[in-house]
Write a structure and sequence with these properties.
GMP Synthetase, Chain A, domain 3, 2 domains, 3 helices, three-stranded mixed β-sheet
Amino acid sequence: MIKVELARVHGDYGFEVTDAYGQSVKIDNSPDHGGDNFGVRPMQLMLMALAGCSGMDVISILKKQKQNITDYKTIVHGEREAGTETSLWKYIELEFIIYGDVDESKAQRAVELSVNKYCSVAGTLKKAGAEIRWKVKVEKSN
């Protein structure tokens, strides 16, 4: 069983969450709901987790295929349900930008495998009803 611990450390809604390894994340409510930008909003943290999870998968898959990745970036856009109290993520779009001497078809396949098979965050969001779309851009090294 995994353990994380949350403590209130800043104002009314400024929390710091620490995992079993001592790594921490600051979380806060939005200013229009009493927060003051001390940390990340919890729902945005889910998109960050998705970018991190899929990024680790994609790089791992491409490294196993001996692709030369010189840099990497993921941009995530999300849209939440309107007019509901829980306001879950409805649409999420990932843009994977991979730099280096990387075969475009291998990059596409690595992303597909991550989003549809390996990334547990993507699987969790999909089970909650989110539609996840992606695009891949490979920038060749000179």
